Amino acid sequence: MASLTGLPTELRQRILSIALSRVKDINMQPPRCLINLLHINHRLRLDMGPVLDLWNPIHHISSPKLLPSFRPWIFTIDGIPVQPKGGRMCIDVFCDVKEDNTAWPCYSVDESHSTYALVAAAWSNAVPLLPTEIKELYVDITPILARRRREHRLIIGKFLRHRRVLEFVSSHFEEIMELLSILQRRYQGTVPIFLTGLLSTKSRSFVERISAVDGLEFRGTWFTQEDSHWPDIQEALKYVAPPPKGKAKTGGVVNPLAYLRNLIKWSDGTKWMYAKLVDMGEFENVVMDLRLLGEFRNDTERLTLSISPASPSRRALQHKIAKDLGLETRSGGEGDGRYIILSRKPLVVPAAKC
Q1: What's the predicted TM-score (pTM) here?
Q2: Please, which residues have CB within 8 angstroms of residue 306's CB and are 6 or more apart in sequence?
Q3: Deepest in the core among 99, 229, 281, 296, taking most CB within 10 A?
Q4: Which helix (H) or strand (E) holds 26?
Q5: 207 phi/psi in degrees, rounded to 5
Q6: What DSSP line would sit under 187-205, residue for residue?
């Protein structure tokens, strides 16, 4: 830490502030990075006093049941108590909704259970427990359960545009309006209230209806149709085996890899890994892998093939492509040098009948 401690105090403290999370969940322990910064050495420990004093995280509350236990963190540095600001708070309306694993897109077992008025009502009843001294209040109306929010953004985007999710959002207009009304009466205009969350642009009319009544600003993230579009593996296959044009459609040499476009039934796992890698900017590498595996399948004289080391995600796709092509795979190497070894499935010769 000599290089950090040797920097000017102001610059050093600005660097330390970057390590602190912008959002704090009140039912979590202080982040490990914060505890570590308080125990590295005496100079950095003293620096953390001003840093914590200026730190203004959004206190994220995922359930109304957690409000009674809300206690801001207080740290003691050389006998002096230091408390991060608690001026910004976010209540997450649907984060704590119970999930039925068999019907996630609608949060219910059947069509008759499409709303969760009780959840919104629980928040309304918990409003008196909110601190009075806050400076900003955010109401998160993301229609996604807590553990599902860790999914890839392509999955979230597609989910948010699902018809039943859009219905789920719009069906809670009255409940959300009631909650906002209670919040406004609680703070009497002294605390600015904002809507936030992850929503599809198809839900824009829902937010506009609320804004038309209460004049609230939406400070969340809109997911567009493009955000929910999964790249199609057929796009890559057009580069691997370009479709014939003109006279080539009726005659001429057939591309030996055309079967990848026409005959292979790609699994859902392969399609998903392809979409994920393309979203990561790996399109050219995926095209190369499809061509390599397709050529190996055609070359019956080669029994095995070792592919160059690749990232875990890319190797996962290689495994799935190989499986769809009827090939066998195993892994070799260690660490960053891990790679895939392709081989053909042994032919099963029927036993001769006596």
Answers
A1: 0.74
A2: 332, 339, 340, 341, 342
A3: 296
A4: none
A5: -65, -40
A6: HTTSS-EEEESEEEGGGHH
Residue whose structure tokens are 């004289």: 301
Among residues 279, 277, 341, 287, the alpha carbon closest in space to that of 309 is found at 341
Question: Collapsing DSSP states into helix, strand and coil, what is residue 272?
Answer: helix
Q: What digits encode the pLDDT tens for the residues 258-295?
A: 999 989 999 999 999 999 999 899 999 999 999 999 99
φ/ψ bin of 80: left (φ > 0), alpha (ψ from -120 to 50), beta (otherwise): beta
Cα angle 253, 257, 263; round to 5: 110
**pLDDT tens-place string over residues 15-62:** 888 877 766 766 667 777 777 778 888 888 888 888 887 788 888 888
- Provide mean pLDDT across the span 139-146: 86
pLDDT at 73 over 60: yes
- Between 312-324 and 283-298, two packed helices, what is the crossing angle to 10 degrees? 40
Count the Cβ atoms, other than its own, within 10 Å of residue 307.
Answer: 20
DSSP one-letter code for 305:
E
